[in-house]
Specification:
two-stranded antiparallel ribbon; 9 helices; about 240 residues; mainly alpha
């Protein structure tokens, strides 16, 4: 299991480097003086290629998750772990190779599907950190995480959390798409969505720990009721 997690970490960080390298080339061509808003116009063809590249990146991460795990929870945990590592690693590699971003509050274009995502670098890195935590919690107690009860309401609330965070990231879509600079990031909305996600993660972790404890007690009880384990109390065994 440790080898699998290590390989996933290596893959996620390697994908992050590929992503950062592509952006280095793009910015060298379109922003030789340094990246800044407003965005420069590019041809429809190049825009389509960039959007397709982002979609292909997600498909690559998803494909690895589908190959690495067999259960739905396992695949979900693997995907978010890879996504989080890819996102965090992307900014780390950019910092190493170009010295950008200057700070965690530097603004960036985060994604283009289905709308333009923008925000301070800190925001996506916080989400990515939660994603990595989800993956690591799953792999640290895999059997218990599979056995823990996670109901439809939990998944529904997770969807709400994602939708709220998404709304924060695309709040400046119209302005950026029109050639303007972002007018501010809705930190309150973002924090609400992120807090809900963290609460759900904590609840899932507690449930997994409880399931792990219950499995441990059952294993001890089963061992205690095993006739072979009781041979020590058999008078014949003492002769």
């Amino acid at each position: 299991m440790r080898n699998r997690v290590l390989l996933l970490i290596v893959f996620g960080l390697a994908m992050a480097y590929v992503e950062a390298a592509v952006v280095v080339y793009l910015r060298e061509i379109f922003y030789p003086e340094g990246f800044a808003f407003p965005l420069k116009e590019i041809s429809i063809r190049l825009g389509a290629v960039e959007v397709a590249r982002e979609a292909a990146t997600i498909l690559m991460l998803l494909s690895v998750a589908l190959l690495a795990e067999r259960t739905r929870r396992g695949r979900f945990a693997c995907f978010v772990l890879l996504f989080g590592l890819w996102d965090i690693g992307y900014y780390l590699w950019l910092r190493v190779t170009t010295g950008w971003p200057e700070s965690l509050l530097t603004w960036d274009v985060l994604f283009l599907l289905p709308l333009i995502w923008s925000g301070p670098v800190l925001a996506p890195m916080l989400v990515a950190g939660v994603f990595v935590a989800v993956g690591l919690v799953y792999y640290s107690m895999r059997e218990a995480a599979e056995a823990a009860h996670i109901g439809r309401l939990d998944w529904l609330l997770a969807g709400v959390s994602g939708a709220v965070i998404f709304s924060a990231f695309v709040s400046n879509h119209s302005v950026v798409a029109a050639g303007g600079a972002p007018e501010g990031f809705p930190w309150g909305v973002f924090a609400a969505g992120l807090a809900l996600g963290i609460v759900l993660l904590a609840k899932a972790g507690v449930r997994a720990q409880n399931a792990q404890c219950i499995d441990g007690v059952r294993a001890q009880n089963a061992q205690g009721s095993d006739p072979k384990s009781a041979q020590g109390s058999d008078p014949k065994s003492a002769q």
